[in-house]
Design a protein that fits this description.
The protein is an all-alpha fold and 115 residues long. The protein contains four helices and no strands. It has a domain of 71 residues. The chain is elongated, with a radius of gyration of 26 Å.
């Protein structure tokens, strides 16, 4: 005897994978590159901009702030010579954090002089 209704479709049934199921990061250099990947990993970034970004991050501790400021400016100059490279965001981050940190160092130094 058969049931009066058809059996429900199982959500766990075997289905063939669509042809685009492979993630974009696994396709290699010949595949499509995810545009958001450049914010996560340094893809096609100028080395000076990458270094400036990390020194800018460390400049939040104030000590390497002048170095971050200088590297950020140097990275922007370098990026103008290399139009195909990315990294302007990291360079600007280094300039902003390095500038704030340098300003804080100057305020602390002047404060010590007149205290």
């Amino acid at each position: 005897m058969q049931p009066p209704y058809p059996p429900p479709n199982s959500p766990y049934a075997e289905r063939p994978a669509p042809p685009h199921a492979q993630p974009t990061w696994a396709q290699g250099p010949q595949g499509y590159q995810d545009p958001a990947m450049k914010y996560v990993a340094p893809v096609n970034v100028a080395p000076l901009a990458l270094i400036a970004g990390y020194v800018g991050l460390a400049s939040m501790l104030c000590l390497p702030a002048p170095l971050a400021l200088g590297l950020g400016i140097a990275a922007l100059v370098d990026l103008k010579k290399k139009p195909g490279k990315d990294g302007a965001g990291r360079a600007w981050f280094a300039i902003v954090t390095g500038g704030i940190g340098t300003l804080m160092l100057l305020i602390a130094f002047v404060g010590r002089l007149f205290h």
